[in-house]
Amino acid sequence: MSLLSENIIPGKHGTTFGTDAKSSIELHKILQAIATINGVRDVIFNTEKFPREFTVRTTRMIKVSEIQSKIKAVGYHAIPTGFFLFW
Fold first, then answer.
1. Region of 64 on the Ramachandran plot (φ > 0 left; ψ -120 to 50 alpha; else beta)
2. Contact residues for 85 (Cβ-Cβ < 8 A; gap 6+)
3. Is 50 exposed, middle or buried (0-12, 13-18, 19+ CB in 10 A)?
4. In the chain, what are the helix, strand and coil shares in percent, each to the nearest 5?
5. Cα gap 85→22, rounded to integer Å
6. Would you say 18 and 51 are in contact if contact means Cβ atoms under 8 Å apart?
7. What is the pLDDT along the chain (87 residues), one digit of tens a residue?
């Protein structure tokens, strides 16, 4: 494992996760769980792909495991699929 694969680095990039949540209500629960983490700038959902994907961008370094544990607490899974999203 490396710094990039274990953490979300702040800036314009983000880490993309795949999730087993399907409906907009389930995705909203994930958004609420992630929003409680200090340093999360925004969460971008891609509902056109299956399984659903979302990208988390931050203002400080956050461990991927912290994101995963918050989502697991609401009953879903999050698996990192990509490490950078450039705008």
1. alpha
2. 13, 14, 16, 44, 55, 57
3. exposed
4. 30, 30, 40
5. 22
6. yes
7. 677 779 999 988 889 999 999 999 999 999 999 999 999 999 999 989 888 999 999 999 999 999 999 999 999 999 998 665 444
Q: Is the peptide bond before 80 cis (omega within 30 degrees of 0)?
A: no
> What is the reported pTM?
0.88
User: Do the Cβ atoms of 19 and 52 come closer than 8 Å?
Assistant: yes
Token pair of 57, please?
A: 């961008």
CA distances from 42 to 15, 56, 59, 62 (A): 11, 6, 9, 13
